[in-house]
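Hi everyone, sorry if this is the wrong subforum. Our group has a chain we'd like a structural model of before ordering constructs, and none of us has done structure prediction before. Sequence below.
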Amino acid sequence: MTSNKMKDLLMERLMRSSWTIEYDHKNEQLRIEDTESKKGVAVSVPTVVSKWEDRKEGAVDEIVYYVEEALKAMSDKQNLSGKEKNIFPVIRSTSFPIETKDGKKLIFEEHTAETRIYYALDLGSSYRLIDLSFAEQEGWKEEQIKQVARFNVRSLDYNYKKDIVAGNQFYFVNTNDGYDASRILNDSLLEKMSSLIEGTMTVAIPHQDVLIFGDIRNDKGYHILGQMTMHFFAEGRVPITALPFLYENKELEPIFVLAQNKQE
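Answer:
Right subforum, don't worry. Here is the predicted structure as tokens:
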């Protein structure tokens, strides 16, 4: 499946009388916009192509559903009152926009050299990133939203699956609730995992729907970790970063240089 064929297939599947579709050749992205609300979403064509290799039509079905739900949520009127339990932090890369398409400032804060924290109102099958004007309109202060979101992410369960590769242990949190990567903000979870790990502790959030803890016990472990995070990064619907982090003294540091050194 080529990018050009996938672009045509997606445009065919996403054709609606109330939507417009534009193709950005440079970034190989489709932008689907509601003609009434003027709000829309972008879809990376190469990302869908990579998913197609494993899932065929299922990959396209997933994107169509995502676009439908996202545009529906954008068109509906939302409010924060009485929805305190539905506010969560979401992790994005530092290249992610800090304003909406119509110039509204998104509420965010810096996280690591690779990531930022944004804040979202959960709408069930999708969510809306919270901008400053929306918060002010609802009578919420920026710090209040951040505190509520941090509290809520700590309440999420974090069951994991364990895998052992070449003597190294990896733990995967993959609930697909939209906040797997956000669980990296749960300090008690990080400390709990730290107590289980005998080697060097790493943490990776290659995309929104996975959190990977690594117990690296030999040099080969870094090579495996690098390949693993790159694979997940390429497959994710909302990619974040292909660089894993070293977790030491309750701090997260990207380990690109360390991983390269370990492979030499």
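For your construct planning: The first strand starts at residue 19 and ends at 24. The chain has eight helices and 13 strands.
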